[in-house]
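QA checklist item 7 of 12: single-chain prediction sanity check.
[x] sequence parsed
[x] length recorded as 424
[x] structure emitted
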Amino acid sequence: MRQLIWVLFVFCLYSTSCRKEENIDIKTDENGVALSLPYIWQKSLHISGEFYSNGFFKFPIIYNDNIAIPTTGEDGSQYMTMVNTTNGETLWEWNDIFIGISGDLEFFRHYISNNLLTWQQGSRSYCINLEDGTTNWKKIRDRNFEPRLFSCNENCYYITSTITRNDGYDEHIVYKGDMDTGILTEFLRANYSCEYIGPITDNGWVGGIIYINEVPLNSNLLLVTYAEPLPEWCVNSFFGLYNIQTQEWVYERKLLAPPLWNTSVFHTPIIYNDQVYANVGNNIVCHDLYTGEQLWRREFDNDFFFSGFIIEEDKIIANNENKTLYCLDPETGHSIWEGEGAGTSSRMSYLNGIVYFVGGSDGKFHAVDIETGQTVWRLDAKKLEGSESLFKTNAVYVIPGENSEKGKVIALTHMYAYCFEAYR
């Protein structure tokens, strides 16, 4: 009997479900902000137990409430691993990368349609089945394509690349990709003034389409974000609205902000309540979706290049490089509150009134109440792993709870994935 009790005790020490007994205590600062929390489970990102570069996912990859994370094998090779969010167990692993290629598990904008995930890295395209981690197709194309992919209603996706025009200059155009086959067909070009030819390519660059947004409830319309070069490395950024059915522009060349060296659009615009919002250099702008007219523009003392902004509960939440988190009224751009941010942060994830992100400037895992702007978590990886450990600005994953239970939040350090109970 004593032997049986000892075996059960040892089993609980090392099983995932019993790890919480080993967990650290809840610690808070003088303002009640959590600095450490017990985790539900912890998973090593490296089978060897040694750190290797393990890829980077800018946006969460979630399928059937399970998550894909970047990991490494015994020899340090990079894997994508699908993890059960209930217990942290591995469901499948994938590393069918082209031989001799590195960096293809650096995800800056993927696309998921049903059970298929596709992404682009340089000239390499991949598509895998998220159900079982098998390769659906992979291709080496004849030139580089941008890593940003955009949704399309027809089991397709949009992607952009540079082509040489009949006049010898280069421009960035849109292709439509088939999710089942990976075949690309040319889809859309914008109209450019060609008043200035930028020395960005060998042939000179006249402009390019950067982002595509499908218009909610109207599959015939696409919001198109594009840019033209100006002298002194300045740029003009525009909105256009394109009708797929008539193959005509509803409007074109709606200027987003006065041209400067950094007035590029840094993240995919967001369509919300028939208005469209974009982060343009140090500005956040709002335009009427159907006319393209600017409704407001607000300038800040720094940009939102890394973390960008989201819109939740009728609030714009924007994480600035000046380490301030801004909450704005979508109708006016006026501040509702200003809170604690962190420069060079991860993208933000939202669940039940809380926004979660990893601060690049401090390496801590932040959670902020979007009603009040109060920080409720500022978790320190050193309290989990010791030494100089930091949370990684990889995507933060949020999984809603069921039956009034709290959800789960998963963040990565450079060594482990940690699953915490959501704040609410």
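[x] summary fact logged: The first helix runs from residue 2 to 14.
[ ] second reviewer sign-off
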